[in-house]
Amino acid sequence: MRRVARLLSFLGAAGIVFGLSKVHAASIAEPAYDFTGSSRFAWAVAYVVLLWIASYGFGLPELPRSARGAALSAAGAAIAAAVGVSVIQLLVGDALLPRFVVFGSALLVVPLEVVLNALARQGRSRGEDRDRVVLVGSDEELARLRVDLALIPERPAVLVAHLSVADAAPAGSARPVIDTVLAESASVVVLDRTAQADEEVVSQVAALHESGLRVRTLVQFYEEWLGKLPVGELERASLFFDISEVHRARYARVKRLMDLAMGMVGLVPFVLAIPLVWLVNLAGNRGPLFYRQERVGRDGTTFEIVKFRTMRAVPDEVEVQADWTAIDDPRITRFGDVLRKSHLDELPQVVNIVRGDLSVVGPRPEQPRYVRELSASLPFYGMRHLVRPGLTGWAQVKYGYAGDERDALEKLQYEFFYLGHQGLRFDLRVMGRTVRSIVGAEGGGR
Whose CA is closest to 5, among 107, 124, 130, 102? Predict the structure, then answer.
């Protein structure tokens, strides 16, 4: 239902914009004109796309949990799109679209998105119990899976039963795996590595598979349902996938061109933000305008990342000894907190993108000393440095801040998933999720 709601969201916005445009061209404009044969048709298409991007950024149609939340999100998206096209018209100096179309569409999109949100929420409520999971594996994997399912999954699932390999062994007429699946009305059986190696478990699962039940290895389940790799399989799984940025030259070139284009566009708001941030800093965040810090980039080379400063100005030697940055770090100034929550502190990194230090999407770069610490405890950690680090990334939108080594390991599971599925479509997906994170004041990142 959520996919249907998304499609109807786009088609509905198109229908509203084109319908109002036709009405204006035929009945309101003097003299009347042919809408489809005019330049306004192309701008109407652009407005439809802008409405869809704004709606997606505000989490529509599926993320709001109530009709009120959907109405507020829809109003925010409609206002953002209307203001966006109005600013473009102001800069161009021409009424590219009539106000009747711009503001009429903004008004009609709100009730449409509320209805589609109700449709999407119905699908979600039915889907929450759709995937009932039986895990056959160790107690350690059980504990990890319970924690991971409590995070933000890509597909809703509930763990209904667990069997150790010993518990799953047949005894007489009892077939524990089959009996448990039937008793719990399970829809997915997940096998960890030890269960996959046990012939008695596999024979029972084979019978279930023949009856139409879905069977997944632990790695497959994590990838499809959670968008990450299981921590116990990181080192082993890291050997068995290609990395597009390394192994597919065409993707690497297109990605770099896309980075350059977005970086050049991002330079405009960055330059416009400099005087504003500088003026406010005089009152509430005295000190240098920019904060520079050494980070580890592609192939282990280091570079200097640039941000608007958000913490109290301190000597360099004090900063070097600072601990991991926390979300509520006491060193953050009041205006610095505003910059962080709005993500404006990240804006100067468009310079890093243009220079080639950063990509728009990739693993977030870390400080050299953290990289040394994590590489010592996680032998496979260095794989993340095979690609250019990113301004945003899959780990950022799925997990957010890394406050310690445990969090870094958690984020590494998402980063390895990104490395194994890297592609332009996935990059665009991460960008869309980032927009949602910013609009919803969620997520984070070092």
Answer: 124
Phi-psi region of 441 (alpha: psi -120 to 50; beta: other; left: phi over 0): left
Q: Determine the Cα–Cα distance for residues 416 and 363; give it in Å rounded to an integer.
A: 9
In a domain, 232, yes or no: no
Phi, psi of 172 (to 5 degrees): 65, -125
Chain segment 314-351, per-residue pLDDT in tens: 655 445 445 555 556 677 888 888 888 888 899 999 99
Residue in 396, 445, 434 with CA at minimum distance from that of residue 56: 434
Angle between helices 40-57 and 2-23 (to 10 degrees): 150
Give the domain extent around 428: 244-439
Report DSSP state, residue 154.
Answer: S
Last residue of a domain, one of 126, 145, 160: 126
Kindly state whether residue 145 falls inside one of the protein's structural domains.
Answer: yes
CA dihedral sign of residues 332, 334, 339, 345: negative
Instruction: Tell me the pTM.
Output: 0.73
Shared-domain flag, residues 204 and 308: no
Is residue 233 in some structural domain? Answer: no
Q: Distance between CA atoms of 216 and 199, rounded to whole angstroms?
A: 16
**Is 415 inside a domain boundary?**
yes
Q: What does the alpha-carbon distance between residue 425 and residue 417 come to, in Å, rounded to a whole number?
A: 14
Instruction: Find, among 420, 439, 438, 67, the residue nearest to 245 by Cα.
Output: 420
- State pLDDT tens for residues 300-323: 999 999 999 988 876 554 454 455
Q: How far is CA 15 from the centre of its chain?
A: 29
Tokens for 345, please give them: 């502190």
For residue 136, give the amino acid letter: V
